[in-house]
């Protein structure tokens, strides 16, 4: 058997080398003196695998090779053992389903069709798919790259440039805030689902305790052939059908069920009213479902994704086939896809197409980095990015056919234009669609199908956001949290549940809208812009391409580099400016929010932006040396960044050392005043 001695110069470390030397038949001699690591490997497949699965199994152990010596010694003594190594996907298909489920959320049901309709119908698809190529795919691919290469969650992954580690904290904060109110949507779905197990849907009639005198039920139908309106006899019969229907259409039975039964809506955010105990129970069940699917990490959520990512397509198809048989459905589809090309001259159409791509794929939220961190190192993330992006955008497009076939039938039944039966937001899912379901034969069965579909869509997105939060903390503090993942996940879900209680009061809908309006208004675009700038210009697009070559065996197309360096950041900056200029306060129907509520919304928006400058200031204050030295070192990768595989890590560290990107660590008591970039000052291990 051939033996070859490989000597690689690594930064000075304390005890990682000797503690992590593999106990196998391959001979590995380690020496930490003078920062050298000498290893002799037998070129045997079995023994090489033993070396590759040896040390540095998680980010905490990698931290042993950077920073404050006294801190490092303590970390090494309390290090994480082999059994606490970061897990991975059982199969690569788990990752694909999880990504698709994460990106295809409830917005595909109520936001995309509405945005498409009001921006030129089929013509909207032109800028939509242009921005998919210029913005959506590059950002998606970029996040998969850095997550898969480092095997780190959104916070720890920014050890690639510690000065901007606040980007990771912003991702976690933003996902945490959004997960609070997005679980409220799952709460509403569970309530509707429970009410669907009956012989007659409660929102199909106007004889319930919550109905008003202006309620119009399924029985109040229009006889299109005679032009007479049964059930609405207080109006002149010589008026046109459309005029009479428009005048009379105050609230349908489904709308009143939504407003006065589910929400019991108060007069405004100033009056939160009492807690709706039925919704409180559903909120608890929603968080319990999320916990049960996540408490074992991606091993459990990856298997759940087989169901939650595929069921929506089955239910969508079943509903689509049934609705196509109803009168008016084809008119709705034609309204959806017929292009209005003059709309392409309107800048607002292009802006909303770009923003919709952003919402469709979910970059900058941290979920993609989190899921990619569990991938195998050599996974083809270019292929995955293209497949998942096309699947997500294709799902939104397909959902539009289902939505507008339903709305077309509703317009036919009520003699109203399609544009006047379309609403945006939760009202479309919990008012318009339930009303349409009442017109189907065996409507309770279709209601169960529909709300099960919404449940799976909501849970998938919730898995991604919660996993982002929990994995972010666990990877950042592995010594304390990795062994207690289940307990930490339970505590985190319990805290989120308590924070969400005000949302199930009678005024909870107003709080929901404020958070939905402001929580990710600017931070997502700021994060996406900084991602491109930091990784393309500070870490370096060329180095990033070398990292990708190490992962996949070849460099990707230059197209990605052009997007990361120029096209995508320019688009993100433009959209950020556009959003700032055109940002208007939200309204709920005719209700206008008071000034203090708008101020609260802006505070929520700042919560996920402030961590970026705060963490930068904190890092600078904790580093050693002159200000220029601190900033210089904080713009360079720490020892936490890089492949988790020890063999690949040796190669990677050596290549960075040759370029001066990875600087040798010195002891805590050995600062240097040298301005030579190849000489380092001591950096605290928390970098």
Written overview of the protein:
It is a single chain. The protein is mostly helical and 687 residues long. It contains 31 helices and eight strands. The chain has helices at residues 16-19, 45-52, 59-62, 69-77, 92-103, 107-110, 112-118, 125-150, 166-195, 241-248, 253-262, 277-294, 298-308, 311-324, 329-337, 347-361, 367-372, 381-414, 418-421, 426-437, 443-476, 478-481, 485-499, 508-518, 523-538, 541-552, 558-582, 595-607, 611-622, 627-634, 646-659; strands at 3-9, 36-42, 215-216, 222-223, 228-229, 251-252, 587-588, 591-592. The chain has a two-stranded antiparallel ribbon. Strand 4 (222-223) and strand 5 form a beta hairpin. Helix 5 packs across helix 13, helix 14 (311-324) runs antiparallel to helix 21 (443-476) and helix 18 packs across helix 20 (426-437). The protein is globular. The model is unreliable at 1-84, 221-249 and 663-687 (pLDDT under 50).
């Amino acid at each position: 058997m051939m033996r070859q001695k490989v000597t690689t110069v690594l930064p000075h470390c304390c005890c990682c080398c000797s503690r992590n030397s593999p106990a196998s038949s391959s001979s590995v001699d380690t020496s930490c003196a003078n920062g050298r690591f000498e290893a002799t490997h037998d070129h045997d497949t079995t023994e090489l695998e033993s070396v590759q699965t040896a040390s540095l199994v998680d980010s905490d152990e990698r931290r042993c090779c950077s920073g404050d010596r006294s801190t490092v010694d303590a970390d090494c003594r309390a290090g994480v053992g082999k059994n606490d190594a970061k897990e991975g996907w059982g199969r690569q298909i788990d990752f694909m389903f999880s990504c698709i489920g994460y990106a295809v959320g409830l917005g595909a049901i109520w936001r995309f069709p509405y945005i498409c309709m009001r921006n030129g119908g089929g013509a909207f698809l032109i800028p939509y798919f242009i921005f998919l190529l210029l913005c959506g795919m590059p950002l998606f691919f970029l996040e998969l790259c850095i997550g898969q290469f480092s095997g780190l969650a959104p916070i720890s992954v920014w050890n690639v440039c510690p000065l901007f580690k606040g980007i990771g904290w912003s991702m976690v904060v933003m996902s945490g805030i959004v997960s609070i109110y997005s679980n409220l949507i799952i709460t509403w779905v569970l309530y509707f689902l429970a009410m669907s197990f009956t012989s007659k849907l409660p929102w199909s009639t106007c004889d319930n305790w919550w109905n008003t005198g202006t309620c119009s039920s399924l029985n109040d139908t229009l006889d299109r052939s005679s032009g007479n309106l049964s059930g609405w006899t207080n109006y002149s019969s010589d008026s046109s059908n459309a005029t009479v229907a428009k005048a009379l259409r105050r609230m349908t039975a489904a709308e009143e069920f939504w407003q006065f039964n589910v929400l019991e809506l108060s007069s405004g955010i100033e009056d939160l009213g009492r807690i709706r105990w039925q919704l409180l129970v559903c909120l608890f069940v929603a968080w319990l479902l999320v916990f049960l699917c996540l408490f074992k990490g991606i091993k459990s959520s990856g298997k759940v994704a087989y169901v939650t990512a595929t069921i929506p397509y089955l239910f969508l198809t079943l509903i689509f086939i049934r609705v196509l048989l109803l009168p008016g459905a084809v008119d709705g589809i034609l309204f959806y896809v017929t292009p209005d090309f003059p709309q392409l001259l309107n800048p607002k159409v292009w802006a909303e197409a770009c923003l919709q791509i952003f919402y469709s794929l979910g970059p900058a939220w941290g979920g993609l980095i989190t899921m990619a961190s569990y991938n195998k190192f050599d996974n083809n993330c270019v292929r995955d990015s293209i497949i998942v992006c096309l699947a997500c955008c294709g799902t939104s497009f397909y959902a539009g056919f289902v939505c507008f076939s339903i709305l077309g039938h509703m317009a036919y039944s009520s003699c109203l234009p399609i544009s006047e039966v379309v609403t945006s937001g939760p009202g479309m899912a919990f008012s318009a669609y339930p009303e349409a379901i009442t017109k189907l034969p065996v409507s309770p069965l279709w209601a169960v199908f529909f709300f099960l579909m919404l449940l799976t869509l909501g849970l998938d997105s919730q898995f991604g956001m919660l996993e982002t939060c929990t994995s972010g903390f666990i990877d950042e503090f592995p010594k304390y949290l990795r062994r207690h993942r289940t307990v930490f996940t339970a505590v985190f879900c319990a805290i989120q549940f308590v924070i969400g209680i005000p949302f199930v009061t009678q005024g909870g809908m107003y709080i929901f809208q404020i958070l939905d309006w402001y929580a990710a208004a600017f931070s997502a675009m700021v994060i996406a812009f900084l991602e491109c700038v930091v990784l393309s210009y500070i870490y370096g697009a060329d180095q990033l391409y070398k990292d990708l070559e190490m992962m996949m065996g070849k460099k990707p197309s230059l197209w990605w580099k052009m997007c990361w360096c120029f096209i995508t950041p320019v688009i993100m900056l433009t959209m950020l400016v556009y959003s700032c200029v055109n940002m208007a306060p939200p309204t709920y129907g005719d209700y206008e929010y008071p000034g203090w509520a708008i101020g609260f919304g802006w505070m929520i928006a700042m919560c996920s932006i402030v961590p970026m400058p705060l963490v930068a200031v904190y890092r600078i204050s904790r580093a050693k040396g002159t200000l220029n030295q601190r900033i210089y070192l904080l713009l360079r990768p720490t020892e936490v960044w890089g492949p988790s595989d020890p063999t690949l890590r040796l190669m990677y560290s050596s290549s960075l050392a040759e370029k001066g990107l990875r600087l040798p660590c010195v002891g805590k008591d050995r600062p240097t005043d040298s301005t030579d970039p190849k000489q380092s000052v001591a950096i605290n291990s928390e970098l």
